Structure formats: structure tokens, C-alpha cells
From TrEMBL:
It holds the Pfam family RCC1. InterPro entries: RCC1/BLIP-II (IPR009091), Reg_chr_condens (IPR000408), Signaling_Regulatory_Domain (IPR051625). This is Uncharacterized protein. PROSITE patterns: RCC1_3. SUPFAM superfamilies: RCC1/BLIP-II (SSF50985). It comes from the Eukaryota. Keywords: Repeat. RCC repeats lie at residues 7-60.
Amino acid sequence: MILTSDGCVYGWGNNWFGQLGCGTDSDKQNEGTFRVNFNPIHEIKSIYCCLYSSFAITSEGQVFSWGRNDFYNLGHNSSDIIWKPQLIANMTVVTGVNQYNRWYEELHSLGSGAFGEVITIYGNVCKKWKN
């Protein structure tokens, strides 16, 4: 996923657990990029992506989450897959994510559109991509 300088979020690739936010289409890989829909009243300032879920933070400090939610880990009162971005109730004034650790995953990505950067972590190797 990527966040453009004008606040649009685009995704591509596999959507097995709803991590792309495009609904129940399980595989967008062969269809190219698509725009993730948010209500226009919300200005997206940053995004954070991991293997099976994604998050977006608005300029007002609200957080949207979507994707795999087996253990209620997306902040919603449900363990169902969240197929499209859903606002987390009662979570406000969030400005960013300082640290992201997952002990049980070998590969994950953390994206931030603030400076046009994407960080990919594989094992103990961290690569920073900048446009």
C-alpha cells in the first residue's frame, strides 16, 4: 500500500484477509492498483501495513483499521475479518506509531507516506526505500 502526497491510499497484491481494504475480493494482484475508499471528511496523514492488516491515521488523530482480526487485534468489537477501512471507536489524538514488533512473523512492511518512505523488514535486515 502507498499514501500519496494528496492523501490518497492505493493498494495492490493479495487480499486474503482483507488487508488491502477493497472488500471481499480475495486477489487484486492481477488487476493493478486501486484506490482505497475513505469518507472525504477524513484526511489520511499516515498508513501502517503489516502482513495481514493495515491502519490509517487521520489528521484529526483518528485511526482506521482493516484486515485479519482473529483476536480482536484491530480494535473492533468483533473477531471477523474487517474487509474495508473501519474507524476505531473512541480512539482519538493518535499521531503515529513509534515502534512495531512482531515476534512470530518473518516478513512484514511498515509504510509511511509522510516522507514517501517504505521500510521493509525481513528477519534482521531492514531496508528503507525512498521515492
